[in-house]
Each structure stands twice: as C-alpha cells, then as structure tokens.
Fold this sequence. Notes:
Elements: E1 3-10, E2 15-24, H1 29-41, E3 46-57, H2 59-74, E4 78-82, H3 86-97, H4 107-122
Parallel strand pairs: 2-3, 3-4
Antiparallel strand pairs: 1-2
Amino acid sequence: MELNIEQHDNSEKSLLRLDLQGRLNTGTAPMLDTTLQQAIDGERQMVLLNMAQLEYISSAGLRVIFKAAKQMKAAGRSLAVSNRQPQVEKVFEILQALPDMAVFASDAELDDYLDAMQKKVTGDD
C-alpha cells in the first residue's frame, strides 16, 4: 500500500495538519519529506502529523519525521504527531528506550526489527 497525504491548512490557528494513510517506508518516505519541506518553508507555527490511518512506519519514515522536527524547532516552530496506531506507537516507544548509541548493524536490520515489533502488535506474525 502506498502513502496518501491529505493537507488541511488552518491559517487562523497557524496549523497545517497532514493526515497520513498507508505505509511510511523507504518507498514512500521521500513523498513525506517533500511535503514536510514545503510545510517548513511555509509560515505555519505548527505542523501536525495525524497518524490515525498510518499502518506502518520504517526507519526511513522516522528519519524524515525527526529531520523535520529538528528543522521546525530550529525555526522556532514545532512538529507534532497525533493518533498513533498501537503498532506505530510501539516503534516510538522502542526508539525512546534505546540508548544514544548504534544498536543495529544496518538500516535493514533496524527495519526488520521494527517490522517484527509492529507485526507482533497487530497480530500479523
């Protein structure tokens, strides 16, 4: 499944909400990166990633999100996420628990691990 991104701009609240639907992986991360770069170049104080319909996230997707969060913070603005599905929430929990050192030998190994954890949560193992 591909990634669909719907944009909802609320200039009154200086908020851009991006509704993510599908899978955020190596193949779809560049599309989100392009969308986020356009949002960062815009003037909204907050960009919100609504993950209510995001089924899967890989390390490539995480890199795009963390890069955008860093850029928004440097600009004095913020990036937020909401409505994470349990399997996506698990990935964020794993990343918060990891120490500040390389744990995986490669991106592929990390993706295999994240894939297994998300399948465990969804019962697809």
